[in-house]
Design goal:
The chain is an all-alpha fold. The chain is 74% helix and 1% strand. It has 18 helices and two strands. A two-stranded antiparallel sheet has the order 1-2. Strand 1 and strand 2 form a beta hairpin. The longest helix is centred in the C-terminal third of the chain and has 42 residues. The protein starts with 26 loop residues before the first helix and ends in a 9-residue tail after the last helix.
Length: 544
């Protein structure tokens, strides 16, 4: 039996195998390897959530409030585009050196972000950080596939999911703590959000060097530079317009120009990939495999609902319920607990029985139930009722995400595992981008008129008009209610200081729009449920 210490080095030469068996490691050896993967994964997962809490503070300090969205967009776009490239590179050069490169690039980006002097400079450095972060998640999943059989895979992917879920709670708390500190060791508090990654990354590198030794049979392919270039040209404009289109207008000239460039880039990418055949960044022959095809479609569709819900729920808790970012993080604990518990239980059941369809269908059904619960939320909904939806959400994601990944990987040749796993993460990230952009667009396009209707009705009451004219309320409302009766929702901070009777029409309009968003999410989840129940075969995973 191979051990982590005795296994061949990642750069070892050897013939290309059509489908090599996974390295036979004991449970203890696999957990040792996972410890290195989880540290790297924790860096990427934490960074996705820690910045959002402090973004307003960062933008104020760098005098870039109107450009703050680019700090998030830059990381997301860079990470999404880099993901499939890491998969192919790891197939060629091995998992460990490529994983170490991803950690180093992420660390350099973090260090640069910590010393940014303008919001645009910070966005540029976030691109570097995203280029590193894009490889940490997909490569972790790929290594698990390398060293486990399909039946065991879900059990160990649960550890990765647990790290991601933990980071989703710890992130807002850490971000809030640093953002609230004016300085720490003579450095602005928010800068430590990025600088803290440096010592964590150093520990991750040491652990990976010590424990991440898995057999690798090199795939002798040339790098697909044309595919990487055309994929970037195709995806970056579409991701940018997805993130920024709501502000520009979906039919504005900049948006139309980006649509055109993106579609032409994707068409060129398909042509290049056909010409590159097996050496392609994303081999098109993988889409002839039904399990992979279904896995990518489900990852995209479920990604829409998952990221959309994870964006909307904190907004509801902070706007409608008046919670702080840290408070919203604590309130989301039912999602995290349900996610971790169900992930670990489903992983063990899959390992024992080899059956995964029942868990996949149950998980997507639970996600649909969560969306349905959230679609009935009111301004005064009790926390216990919200928690029911959170439990459904966490359980659904815990059961669905690992089974979809297992489905996509189940029939992939061993030499394509890196490219295939990276492609799955690529489609999930794109689904998340589409879901977040679509849900936010629906929210704000409906919130403005619905708040306007409620304000118009409220102003019919003389006592309400007198309330708005009182100095304590008039100053915060300045610029919010325009002369023509429309409202400006660029900043919701005024809701915390105005009279609750004045805030009521705004909150009711917001929540009404959120209900429509979650109805849309329910429809998306039901589409995924139909695909999972109707198209996914009820097969038994191999134990080899």
């Amino acid at each position: 039996m191979n051990t982590p210490e005795a296994a061949p080095d990642d750069t070892a030469d050897g013939p290309v195998a059509e489908s090599a068996a996974p390295a036979r490691l004991t449970h203890r050896q696999i957990v040792t390897v996972l410890s290195g993967l989880m540290l790297g994964m924790f860096l990427a997962a934490l960074d996705q959530t820690v910045v959002s809490t402090a973004l307003r503070t960062i933008a104020d300090d760098l005098n870039g409030l109107t450009a703050q969205a680019w700090v998030t967009t830059a990381y997301l776009v860079a990470g999404t585009v880099a993901t499939p490239m890491y998969g192919k590179l790891s197939d060629i050069y091995g998992r460990r050196p490529v994983y170490l490169c991803a950690i180093v690039i992420f660390t350099v980006g973090s260090l640069l972000c910590g010393f940014a002097t303008s919001i645009h400079q910070l966005a540029g450095f976030r691109v570097v950080q995203g280029l590193g972060g894009g490889g940490l998640m997909s490569l972790a999943m790929t290594v698990i596939a390398d060293i486990t059989s399909p039946r065991e895979r879900g059990r160990y992917q649960g550890y990765i999911t647990a790290v991601f879920a933990g980071a989703s709670v710890i992130g807002p708390l850490v971000g809030g703590v640093f953002a609230e500190r004016a300085t720490l060791l003579g450095v602005a508090g928010w800068r430590w959000i990025f600088l803290v990654n440096v010592p964590l990354a150093a520990v991750a590198v040491i652990v990976v060097l010590r424990v991440l030794h898995v057999p690798h049979q090199p795939v002798r392919h040339r790098l697909d530079y044309g595919g990487a270039a055309t994929l970037t040209i195709g995806v970056v404009p579409l991701l940018v317009v997805a993130e920024q289109g709501r502000g520009w207008g979906w039919g504005s000239p900049p948006a139309l120009a980006l649509y055109t460039v993106g579609l032409l880039g994707l068409a060129a990418f398909v042509l290049v990939e056909r010409r590159m055949a097996d050496a392609a960044l994303l081999p098109l022959r993988l889409f002839r495999i039904k399990a992979f095809r279904l896995g990518t479609v489900l990852h995209f569709v479920v990604g829409i609902g998952m990221f959309g819900a994870m964006t909307m729920l904190p907004l509801y808790l902070q706007i409608a319920r008046g919670m702080s970012p840290m408070g919203a993080g604590f309130a989301s604990l039912p999602t995290v607990v349900a996610n971790v518990v169900v992930t670990l239980v489903v992983g063990r059941l899959m390992s024992r029985t080899g059956k995964f369809k029942v868990h996949l269908v149950a998980g997507v059904g639970s996600l649909a139930a969560a969306m349905a619960v959230f679609a009935t939320l009111r301004v005064d909904s009790p926390l216990w009722y919200i928690s029911i939806g959170m439990v459904f959400l966490g359980a659904g994601l815990g059961a669905a995400m690992q089974t979809i990944t297992t489905l996509a990987q189940s029939e992939i040749p061993r030499q394509d595992m890196g490219a295939a796993t990276a492609s799955v993460n690529f489609f999930r990230s794109n689904g998340g981008t589409v879901g977040t952009a679509a849900f936010l667009s629906i929210l704000f396009s409906l919130a403005v008129p619905r708040i306007g209707e409620r304000l118009t009705a409220a102003f019919q009451d003389p006592s309400f008009r007198r309330l708005t004219e009182e100095p304590a309320n008039a100053v915060p409302l300045e610029g919010v209610i325009r002369a023509d009766g429309s409202v400006d929702l660029a900043d919701s901070a005024f809701l915390d200081v105005v009279d609750p009777r004045i805030a009521a029409p705004f909150l009711e309009g917001y929540v009404s729009a959120m209900q429509a968003v979650f109805v849309t999410g329910t429809v998306v989840a039901l589409i995924a449920l139909v695909i999972a129940a109707w198209r996914v075969p009820d097969t038994r995973l191999s134990a080899d």
